[in-house]
What we know:
Layout: H1 2-7, E1 11-17, E2 21-22, E3 27-36, E4 41-42, E5 48-54, E6 60-67, E7 72-78, E8 86-94, E9 105-111, E10 133-137, E11 142-148, E12 161-166, E13 172-176
Parallel strand pairs: 2-9
Antiparallel strand pairs: 1-3, 3-4, 3-7, 5-6, 5-8, 8-9, 10-11, 11-12, 12-13
Amino acid sequence: MDVFAANNVNERVHLHLDRQWYSPGDTIWFKAYTVAGEYHRLSTISGVLYTELINDQNNVVNRLALPLDSGISLGDFKLPDSLKSGVFHLRAYTNRMRNDSDYFYDQKIIIGQPVASPTNPGYAKPNLSAGNTILQNTADKTDLQFFPEGGNLINGLRSKVAFKATNRNGLAGMYRV
């Protein structure tokens, strides 16, 4: 059994995203880690990672085939400005994983600001206080963005937060607190 287990290890894919909520026209940046074995060490079994952006009708909107270098890959999906808002899925897998879809990476992401509807009754409005937040002061057109270290703010956990303020003329300043 030990020889069989050593020769037939399962791969798993994990993606590290830059955030969970996007707008049409944004770019979804990610870093992929392919691991294998009981200790989840970086895998060199597969050489190609397949990633797919899937809409709420289960149609593939965009597909990438990325090279894996010692189990690591970098990629991005450029979202078109014409993309409809909704809840999408980001799926990633290797060719070896196609035999068992239980090992696919599958994560929900929100694009735009979808509303609850009969086709999407379980939608919950994103919590903009956790993650990159955009606040606008309509009086002087000041744009204020917060960038928590690690991508998300966690209540009760001390973390570093950078913020960017842009005035009505488009001049910006970036600060780290």
